[in-house]
């Protein structure tokens, strides 16, 4: 029987990551804006420059302090088969979601990913899956299962986040596709920097600092007309 070379194993891991972050992954991520639609409606973000500034802030004060370092910890916990630590960080993440919509987004995407993995025969042992597993928790499991290196896991996650946010802007701001590519060019090195910072954070440094996004998300719950669920 043929066995994959080291290079081929790395290629398989990369392909597994690409599958996980693809917009075609059927978990419904396109339906959520993570508070961005509210920022448009409230007049906080009106153009390309303001959108770029918003994304920089969310990346620096949100992802680099919360989702990214949490992914590292969860991926290591999955590798160790440590159900208690997986549950601890899953609960911690739920506690950091300041609004019903943000909490619902993480829970629903996590449940959708669990359903997909079940249909693909890729779920971990039931005893390792926490109650109400969030999207970040299950994302970390797939990255571990696919043997994706931690750094690449974080790079892939930030890329998926940026693509989703720009897709939201193209539908709701509206933002032209060329403008979206200009923002992508600007943000690419910032994504790498955010990953570098996240990899160095200690536990006591974790937690998002996004009061504006939290306020916008809360107001979005009663927004009269909207395209997205958050």
TrEMBL record:
Subcellular location: Cytoplasm
Entries under InterPro entries matching the protein: UreF (IPR002639)
Pfam family, one: UreF
Entry keyword Cytoplasm: yes
Keywords on record: Chaperone, Cytoplasm, Nickel insertion
Lineage top rank: taxon: Bacteria
Quaternary assembly: UreD, UreF and UreG form a complex that acts as a GTP-hydrolysis-dependent molecular chaperone, activating the urease apoprotein by helping to assemble the nickel containing metallocenter of UreC. The UreE protein probably delivers the nickel.
UniProt similarity note: Belongs to the UreF family.
Function, in words: Required for maturation of urease via the functional incorporation of the urease nickel metallocenter.
Protein name: Urease accessory protein UreF
The organism of origin for this protein: Marinobacter salexigens
Organism lineage: Bacteria, Pseudomonadati, Pseudomonadota, Gammaproteobacteria, Pseudomonadales
Gene that encodes the chain: ureF
């Amino acid at each position: 029987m043929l066995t994959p070379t080291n290079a081929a194993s790395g290629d398989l891991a990369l392909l597994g990551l690409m599958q996980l972050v693809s917009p075609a992954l059927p978990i419904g991520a396109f339906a959520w804006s993570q508070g961005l639609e509210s920022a448009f409606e409230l007049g906080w973000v009106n153009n390309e420059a303001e959108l770029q500034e918003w994304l920089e802030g969310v990346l620096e004060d949100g992802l680099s302090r919360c989702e990214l370092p949490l992914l590292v910890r969860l991926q290591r916990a999955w590798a160790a088969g440590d159900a208690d630590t997986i549950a601890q960080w899953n609960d911690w993440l739920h506690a950091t979601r300041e609004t019903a919509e943000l909490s619902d987004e993480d829970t629903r995407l996590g449940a959708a990913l669990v359903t997909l993995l079940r249909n693909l025969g890729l779920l971990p042992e039931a005893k390792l899956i926490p109650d109400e597993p969030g999207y970040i928790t299950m994302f970390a499991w797939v990255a571990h299962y696919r043997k994706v290196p931690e750094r690449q896991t974080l790079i892939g996650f930030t890329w998926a986040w940026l693509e989703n946010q720009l897709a939201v802007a193209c539908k709701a701001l509206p933002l032209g596709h060329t403008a979206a590519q200009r923002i992508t060019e600007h943000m690419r090195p910032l994504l790498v920097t955010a990953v570098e910072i996240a990899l160095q954070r200690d536990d006591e440094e974790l937690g998002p600092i996004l009061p504006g996004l939290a306020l916008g998300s809360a107001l979005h719950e009663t927004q009269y007309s909207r395209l997205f669920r958050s």
